Amino acid sequence: EVQLVESGGGLMQPGGSLRLSCAASGFIVSCCYMIWVRRAPGRGLEWVSVIYSGDTTDYADSVRGRFTISRDNSKNTLYLQMNSLRAEDTAVYYCAGSSFVGAFDLWGQGTLVTVSS
Amino acid sequence: DIVLTQTPLSSPVTLGQPASISCRSSQSLGHTDENTYLSWLQQRPGQPPRLLIYKVSSRFSGVPDRFSGSGAGTDFTLKISRVEAEDVGVYYCMQVTQFPYTFGQGTKLEIQ
Fold first, then answer.
1. Mind listing the pLDDT tens digit for each residue in B76-87?
2. Which of A74, A81, A97, B112 could pair with A68 in a Cys bridge, judged by C-beta atoms 3.0 to 4.6 Å apart?
């Protein structure tokens, strides 16, 4: 079964750090475009970051310089290192993969990140 | 950045009746490879997003044929021919033609 499973969410104080993981099974994270998307309470989906060919990366302006996307091919896992967390980073974070060009067809269940003092 | 504007933001629909959601882009979503990378996703309550339609009008595997997508350039539409109870949720258009990827604000489909 093809599956993406996120972990690493939790409660963190402002200014703190968290690392989210997205473990894949039945799917090779290194092959394809992989993204992180978040949904803050009461709001819509927001794209956060992408990693693609040659481990090229890009970020939303709201997280650039604070978040880092990466993948470990040996563990078939995608990561999102989140530093200098702010209250507005509170959201459910989803990883997603594109098994074919032009759309993200594989989604994890999400992990909740709460940033609060 | 490409801005996607969805209308309506809320859509009360009677079971068995059609529903339509519009997504307008601030610029053309045509890619240099001649594809248009506009997708529609459904997010049911408590669930992750689910891909329904990709490249404007291609229905993803397992998606019921009551869902259809159309459009070109900057104007796109998702149609549900006959709404069923399981269709309740929030629908998003998403463009992956250009970075940063962007989503529409979401349209909440409710049964009235």
1. 999 999 999 999
2. A81
